[in-house]
Design a protein that fits this description.
- The protein has 327 residues and is an alpha+beta fold.
- It folds into 3 domains: 87 residues, Malate/L-lactate/L-sulpholactate dehydrogenase, four-helix barrel (Hypothetical Oxidoreductase Yiak, Chain: A, domain 1), CATH 1.10.1530; 179 residues, Malate/L-lactate/L-sulpholactate dehydrogenase, NADPH binding domain (Ribosomal Protein S8, Chain: A, domain 1), CATH 3.30.1370; 40 residues, Hypothetical oxidoreductase yiak, domain 3 (Wheat Germ Agglutinin (Isolectin 2), domain 1, 2-Layer Sandwich).
- 38% of the residues lie in helices and 18% in strands.
- The chain has 10 helices and 11 strands.
- The strands form 3 sheets. Strands 2-3-4-10-5-6-7 form a 7-stranded mixed sheet. The chain has a two-stranded antiparallel ribbon with strand order 1-11.
- α1 packs across α2.
- The longest helix has 19 residues.
- It is globular.
- The model has no long low-confidence stretch (mean pLDDT 94).
Length: 327
């Protein structure tokens, strides 16, 4: 169904108000969830308010702490708080440092569960004229190639680039499907696609309820897909002193790298160059059966623009009813 964005915004805030958040913190989380819903990324939207590990139930042990800091880097202990709030702090710190030094790298650890739609942070960074690379560790729900044990997270990565127009943002999980897409499917009683998840015995399944007891698979259930996930697992885990056990599998690390194009050229030159490259891709000759080249992130951007212009967002009926029940 179509829901007015302002109505959805108020509902999200009302649910978050049941948790231990200030008005400012609720606003930050709401912005990330609305970004996801208006972009068509429902697995990163209001579904985060549902289930045992929902956002409104997160209780941090303490406020985020800067453990180490230099002119171009920072390391933040998240205090077991919301991944969204800690990532917002890391993003802001990285942008400020990059503006002064030309490059910044900020890591976080000890954050609870998801950072939400990673493209949100990449978009914000790109609007400052910088290149943003964000890698996020996530709860251990992925079975590496050949295994049936949950050892990796879905480990999303987003990269944002400034252009002459809207930021160009690539945002993706390193698995066949985001974990919260499986949760969403279970809530709405939808079947999963083939070959993306296994049950607790390691057998392929399309039943989201059985997948929740099992694991999701890397890209194409292939060694190369598993390797991509492992790279991000290392950069958001061991590098950031975040090595999880079964008891703390929901604790996560995140890495923000922000680059000022002026280290190599000028912001305007970079914007023009990438815009020319994107246009060349759009103008490429089409394969048989293809009517239009659609680049990564473009459909999400179009959906967001249409939603913001109309003031309404499409949301699954069952999810909306569940959201209303939480108010």
């Amino acid at each position: 169904m179509k829901v007015q964005i302002t109505t959805l915004e108020k509902l999200i805030d009302t649910v978050l108000a049941k948790g231990d958040y200030s008005i400012t913190e609720r606003r930050l989380i709401t912005n990330v969830l609305l970004y996801a819903e208006t972009s068509g990324k429902s697995s990163q939207g209001v579904v985060k308010l549902m289930g045992e590990d929902c956002l409104q139930k997160i209780q941090s042990l303490y406020k985020p702490r800067f453990q180490k800091e230099t002119a171009m880097s920072a390391f933040i202990d998240g205090g077991k708080g919301s991944g969204i709030l800690v990532s917002s702090l890391a993003m802001q710190a990285a942008i400020k440092k990059c503006a002064r030094t030309g490059i910044a790298i900020v890591g976080t650890n000890n954050t609870f569960a998801s950072t939400g739609a990673v493209g949100y942070y990449a978009t914000k960074i790109a609007t400052h004229g910088f290149v943003g690379i964000i890698m996020c560790g996530s709860p251990k729900v992925v079975a590496p190639f050949g295994s049936k044990d949950r050892l990796f997270g879905t480990n999303p990565i987003a990269v944002g680039f400034p252009t002459m127009g809207d930021p160009f943002v690539i945002d993706m999980a390193t698995t066949a499907l985001p974990w919260y897409e499986i949760i969403r499917a279970a809530l709405t009683d939808e079947k999963l696609p083939e070959n993306i998840a296994i049950n607790e015995n390691g057998e392929l399944t399309t039943d989201p309820h059985k997948a929740l007891d099992g694991a999701v698979l890397p890209f194409f259930n292939h060694p190369k897909g598993s390797a991509i996930s492992m790279i991000i697992e290392i950069l958001t885990g061991p590098l950031l002193d975040q090595v999880n056990t079964l008891d703390d599998r929901f604790m996560c690390g995140n890495l923000f790298i922000v680059i000022n194009p002026e280290l190599f050229s000028t912001k305007d030159t970079f914007r023009r160059n990438i815009s020319v490259m994107l246009q060349r891709l759009h103008n490429a000759r089409l394969q048989k059966g293809v009517t239009k080249i659609i680049l990564p992130g473009e459909q999400s951007l179009l959906r967001r623009k249409e939603a913001l212009a109309s003031g309404f967002v499409e949301i699954n009926d069952t999810l909306y009813e569940r959201l209303l029940s939480l108010v």
